[in-house]
Design goal:
With 273 residues, the chain is mainly alpha-helical. It contains eleven helices and no strands. The two termini are 42 Å apart.
Length: 273
Amino acid sequence: MKTTSKIYTSLIFVFLFAPIAVLLVFSFNDAKSLSVFSGFSLRWYRELMSDENTLESVKNTLILATSATCISTVVGTMAAYGIYRIRREWMRGVMNTVTNIPMINPDIITGISMMLVFVFVGHLFGAATSLNFWTLLIAHVTFCLPYVIFQVLPKLNQMDSNLTEAAQDLGCTPLRAFVKVTLPQIMPSIITGAIMAFTLSLDDFVISYFTSGNDFQTLPIRIYGMTKKTVTPKMYALATIIFVVTMVLLLINNVVESKDRKEDRYNSEGGTR
């Protein structure tokens, strides 16, 4: 039984990671062939670095992802704290359900509906162009917010509320008590939520496709345009860079969560002694 389980698990990992391994290997291929590896080379990375349109889309994507992450992290943390402070269980359940909707809603439905709203508002105010960077930013903040909220909210529920009340009894204002007591305890969850929001914004295609204008192109849309032409290993190089960045963010996220779990375990053991 154990041998069968190991074989089954190995097959799953091969199925999941074999395509990525092929992509990584052929991004260093010296020839243009997508099936025969003729030698190690950084040729396609050099060509990628000289592609101005792709570099421009990378810059746009980083600007958009950073802006959406900052806004959604701040607003999402405030929203999570607001939900945490709701005393009525039915009202908290309603807020959790409403927050869940953007997560379970198909991306294509979200993208089309937001595009219709932006176009309607643009025509209402007589704007020459309804879709631009700002509509794209609003769309990204919208679908990133729930992930931040649901990362921060469980940590707030685990927190000892007596600490905040004690800080206020000792003379802290509610804002100062939040900054000095609550914020340090939920900071690991905030960082995790921010990393998740950045990753989601970085690789989003469907919603970006429907809510972006002609003057602002993100990297996923650029890659989609490149696939309509002849596929070259330059795309492999680009995908490899994206994969490495995502892996680094994942490792940072795991380190933060691991430290947070150790601190929770230490505090729990200390409280029982």
